[in-house]
Amino acid sequence: MNELAIMEALLFAAGEEGLTYKQLADVLDIQEERVYELVQQLKHMYDVAERGIMVVEMAGTLQLVTKKQCAPYLQKLVESPTTSSLSQAALETLAIIAYRQPITRAEIEQIRGVKSDKPLQTLLGKALIKEVGRAEGTGRPILYGTTKEFLDYFGLKTLDELPPLPEWDEQEEEREADLFFERLNEQLQEAGEQR
Question: Is the dihedral of CA 114, 116, 117, 119 positive or negative?
Fold first, then answer.
């Protein structure tokens, strides 16, 4: 396989993270000047062939991105009814995990007051949560935490950007919790719809 094809594969695999000229040079075991030449060839190849992707340099990294002309089709794909949104139960479960991670299924169910197997499976399937370890104690239950995809999905850089938890009176805890989850779910749904 030639250097151009390998570089294309590396850029594709790197995704949004991108790769620097130095990283590409190190992996391909070539000089950075040669990487620059290959990048120019790749750019030319995508331009001449009227492809849907192109190579861009952003913040010192090279990335494969879709062309602006494809935006209406990508938008249509995102808004397609086949892309399902999260259910109320999944959003509640996700919010609990986001704020209390790492957390076990039993702890989630104690907070929600209902079984949470299906919402957990949905969230695992969408890669918004993952298993992050095992709790100490009987049965060593699985601990769940959020993923990088969770941050990407809701447009967050870190978990510190989550809306602050309200402080509530214990006597009104249940009512406040309902209102909190309702507000949080609205925010999460809005963030998800904007993507």
Answer: positive
Between CA 11 and CA 26 the distance in angstroms is 14
Over 80: is that where the pLDDT of 145 sits? yes
Dist CA 106 CA 139 (whole Å): 12
What percentage of the chain reaches a pLDDT higher than 70?
87
How far apart CA 123 and CA 146 sit, in angstroms, is: 9
Q: Could you give the angle at the alpha carbon of 164 between the alpha carbons of 179 and 85, nearest 5°?
A: 60
Average pLDDT over residues 150-157: 84
pTM: 0.48
Interhelix angle 105-112/117-125, nearest 10 degrees: 120
What is the three-class DSSP state of 62?
strand
Which residues on adjacent β-strands are paired with residue 63? 56
Specify the 3-state DSSP secondary structure of 57.
strand
Name the 3-class secondary structure at 78: helix
What residue has token string 């809005």?
Answer: 190
C-alpha distance across the termini of the chain, in Å:
37
* Ranges assigned E (strand) in 59-169: 61-66, 103-104, 129-134, 142-146
Q: Of residues 49 and 19, which shows the higher confidence score?
A: 19
Give me the residue label for tokens 């957390």. Answer: 103
